[in-house]
Amino acid sequence: MAKKKTETKKTPKKPYKMPSFKLSSQQKLVLGSFLAIFGILLFIAFVSFFFTGEADQSSLSNFASRDTVSKNWLSKSGAWLSDFFIHRGFGISSFIFSVLIFLSGLYVLMDIDKAKLRKHWFWGLIVIIWLSVFFGFFVSLNDNLGGAIGFELNSYLQDYIGIIGTILVLLFCLIAYLAIRFKLTFESIAKLFSFAKKDIKEEFSNDEEDEFSIAFDNNLSVEAEDIKSAFDLALEAEDITKEKVVTKDTASKLKVHVVADEDDIELEALEMKVVKVKEELSETDNLANKLVEDFGQFDPTLELGNYQFPPLDLLTKYDSESITINQEELEDNKNKIVDTLKNYSIGIASIKATIGPTVTLYEIVPDAGIRISKIKNLEDDIALSLSALGIRIIAPIPGKGTIGIEVPNKNATVVSMRSVIASKRFQSSDMQLPIALGKTISNETLVVDLAKMPHLLMAGATGQGKSVGLNAVLTSLLYKKHPAEVKFVLVDPKKVELTLFNKIERHYLAKLPDSEDAIITDNTKVINTLNSLCIEMDNRYELLKNALCRNIAEYNVKFKARKLNPNEGHQFLPYIVLVVDEFADLIMTAGKEVETPIARLAQLARAIGIHLIIATQRPSVNVITGIIKANFPARIAFRVTSKIDSRTILDSSGADQLIGRGDMLFTQGNDVTRVQCAFIDTPEVERLTDFIGSQKAYPEAYALPEYVGEESGMSIDIDISERDKLFRDAAIVIVQAQQGSASLLQRKLKLGYNRAGRLIDQLEAAGIVGPFEGSKARQVLITDLTSLDKFLENEIL
Ligand SMILES: Nc1ncnc2c1ncn2[C@@H]1O[C@H](COP(=O)(O)OP(=O)(O)OP(=O)(O)O)[C@@H](O)[C@H]1O
Fold this sequence. Notes:
Main location: membrane
Pfam family, one: FtsK_SpoIIIE
GO molecular function, one term: DNA binding
Number of helices: 29
Bound molecules: adenosine-5'-triphosphate
CATH class of the largest domain: Alpha Beta
CATH architecture of the largest domain: 3-Layer(aba) Sandwich
Subcellular location: Cell membrane
Mean pLDDT: 79
Transmembrane segments: 29-51, 90-109, 121-140, 160-180
């Protein structure tokens, strides 16, 4: 058993990745034209060699001397190269080299998929060798036909298998080549010979019957009618269901053997071979393979092919970055912890310190028999004795069997954005949406995948590092993702926090088609954007459904492999990250109208690549509601002022004991990790957005689907005859209460939300209530019941 366990623990070896050599467009132009021209030069030199080769023999030995003259059209170099390739190499087949080199140049110039080029080289080399061995037979005619290599290989083969053997080996190679390269089969050769036979058969069959190939026994001619009915009979006998459509293709492969008696034309036996129809799917597959072969995989980054990812230098290196170990402080804290615990008669078996960027973790193993809850209760006493804020006791540390006491360092170190972006963990991560959040207490960079979270909730009191945290998230994505791969929808009611990202509007932002600003600062517009995202979500689900994919990653892989037809609406789908700063403000002003689409997106959008990040400085239960919490398992808590706030965010206390300035607790649903958030200052964000913004961009920001909201003043035309039966009652309720709200109708008429909503729409169309006004109830346009009666009577007239 034990052995088994150790075996399973072995970490799998990482597959070796080939280094990729990506050439810039300029390099491609230089290399491509060099190869193409070199190919042409070789060709000219080779042609010339057959006229001037003999005369140039003597010049070859004096290549270095300037006085030696060569007759080759490309002079001494031409003479030398053609002697090397033709005379000493592969003979006449060396011409293929010049073609292959020229072709390579074209492939590089036009940036065509290299897989096809490799194929050309592979088969080209095989043909070169075969031809030179073949021409080796004719060395007596001209030794340049097969070249030295062809001659040597030929005579080598002859020494071992003789002339006949060599010819047969060459013949076999030729057949193998034709079979593999041109998919030649024995049947296709046989087909060539069967044309004459077919002509004879056609005499016995009319138009329909030439779909069958018929073999007659006893050379008997059977009427076409009979054959057809026999065929039908056979279909019935074999109980082939009607749905099985036998295509013309299949039918042509059907063979009906009819055995008939000499005097009687009755059919005795019927043998039928049904060839299965090829699945339609594999046909698109083959087409896709061919497309990929011809054009390579679809590259979504092609439109901004020259886009340069931001360099690390844009981010600042801070002086106080490296952790300095203050031995005195460590010793002092240790003594205080030990003494305090001793005062409560808690003995310690061992103590260990791990120094993090902002806090040091003291891990203690208490003496046997000590209750853990006893230590946990001493939190305040230990804090008092250490005279420090932000002490957190983790009892026990999950998975370790020790008790942790986190004590803030006197001099906290800054975790720079630069250091986390430069970390190997971030650079080599192959996550879909990697985010470098900061450093853990053991000083390791914490990199998480937003796509897996799948949404993130950030909360904390004001001034504790939320905005910096949001910037860190956005920066991580900007450093790792191409503009084609991710789009942001930014909502910033504070109007100042995210403005810098305006510069990258046409690279990375998404917006509604008719809106001017990509960053949404107006709360009423947020509702439109959220609803538009819901439409985008529904559209994407439709695309995924049609493509038979379960998630966006699968879909994009399929699209890149050219298995999805853009004419059917398929397109490469970028991830969409919705960032809402100050969520509380939104909920306060728009309430349900915001919560409903947010909840819908949070529940459903994970598979189709829409991820939400919402930040709030007011972590109260009416902002972070149950529905929001249920859909945001990944949460970040910066410092908050009360235990209740901490519980609201994390479902546990702890955030109230943080020290601020980016000190945070992160959870993805289970363990809570203390992390020092990476710090990025406004000038750094500015440099970053300037760098990206100065590059070539898309003509427009990514367009979200249009959403026509109720508040857009669109008049709803509803036919009187289509009105709800309760229309009159609803109108009376509304006019009596002088309050146009759907919830009032729900209560008074005991209706569901949808029906009440429809009634309000109809009342608006009739002109009884005014248009939608955000969170306020609609205005009632009719003042009393008498006017209402008159109004409705006039309507009927
Ligand atoms: N990760 C960090 N490392 C060091 N200092 C930080 C960090 N994060 C924030 N700070 C400090 O805290 C200050 C406030 O941060 P920030 O503006 O992000 O707070 P906030 O929570 O967004 O506040 P508000 O809600 O008022 O916008 C920053 O100016 C910075 O000095």
